[in-house]
Amino acid sequence: MTTTTEPCNVLILYFSRGGATQQLADAIAEGVAQAGAEALLRTVATDNDAACSRDLTVSTDDLATCDALILGSPTRFGHMASALQKFWESTSNQWLKGVLINKPGAVFTSTSSLHGGQESTLLSLALPLLHHGMLLTGVPYSEPSIHGREAGGSPYGATLFNEDGKLHPNERKTATALGKRIAQIALACRQTQFEDSHS
Ligand SMILES: Cc1cc2nc3c(=O)[nH]c(=O)nc-3n(C[C@H](O)[C@H](O)[C@H](O)COP(=O)(O)O)c2cc1C
C-alpha cells in the first residue's frame, strides 16, 4: 500500500461547440470536488468553437499525470466529434508507454434529440479508453437520477438532452454522481498496487 500527499487529479477532457457538453463537464467537476479530488477541465484544439476556448487545450502529458479521465463529446451522427477522435489518434506514444493503464475512466455526451445516439456515442468514447487499458466505469442503477424518462442519464455515462440548452436537474445529478464516483475510485486506486501496472 502506498500513501501520497499529491492531489488526486481527475482530467475532464471534452469538446463543446455550443456549451451543452461543457455544462455536463462542469457538473462532473462538481462531483469530483465533492469527493476531495481536483478536476482539471481540458479541451481539444479546434478552429472556431467558442465554448471550448474557456479551458486549456489538453496535452498528451496530461494523460500521464492524471489519476483518472472522464471524456465527453456532443453526439455527431451517433459518434464522438472528430476533434476528439483526432486527439486520440495522436496518443500512440502514450498507448505504448501504458500511461493510462489501470486508471479509472468514464464518458459523457449531449444530443439534440433524446433518442439521437447518446448510447452509441458513449460507446464510441469508451473505445479509446479501453484500448488504453483504463478501468471503464458507468453509473449504477442505485443512482435515482438515471431512472427518469424525460431527460438524459444512462448507466453507460452522463448525458444531456439539449432541448432548451439547459441541464435538467436529473442530468445534473447523474453527472455529479459520475464525477464523484470516478474520483472516489481514483482515490482508492492510488492505494492499490496492480501487478501489471505501468505507472
Ligand atoms: C454535425 C453534427 C451532427 C450531429 N449529430 C447529432 C446526432 O446524431 N444526434 C443528435 O441527437 N444530435 C446531433 N447533433 C446535435 C448535437 O449533438 C447537440 O446539439 C449537442 O448538444 C451540441 O453540444 P455542444 O453544445 O456541446 O456543442 C449534431 C450536431 C452537429 C453539428
From TrEMBL:
Residues 10-183 form the Flavodoxin-like domain. One of its GO terms (molecular function) is FMN binding. Keywords: Flavoprotein, FMN. Gene3D superfamilies: 3.40.50.360. Transmembrane segments: none annotated. SUPFAM superfamilies: Flavoproteins. Its cofactor is FMN. It comes from the Bacteria. InterPro entries: Flavodoxin/NO_synth, Flavodoxin_CS, Flavoprotein-like_sf, Flavoprotein_WrbA-like, FMN_Rdtase-like_dom. GO terms for cellular component: membrane. Belongs to the WrbA family. This is NAD(P)H dehydrogenase (Quinone). It comes from Idiomarina aquatica.
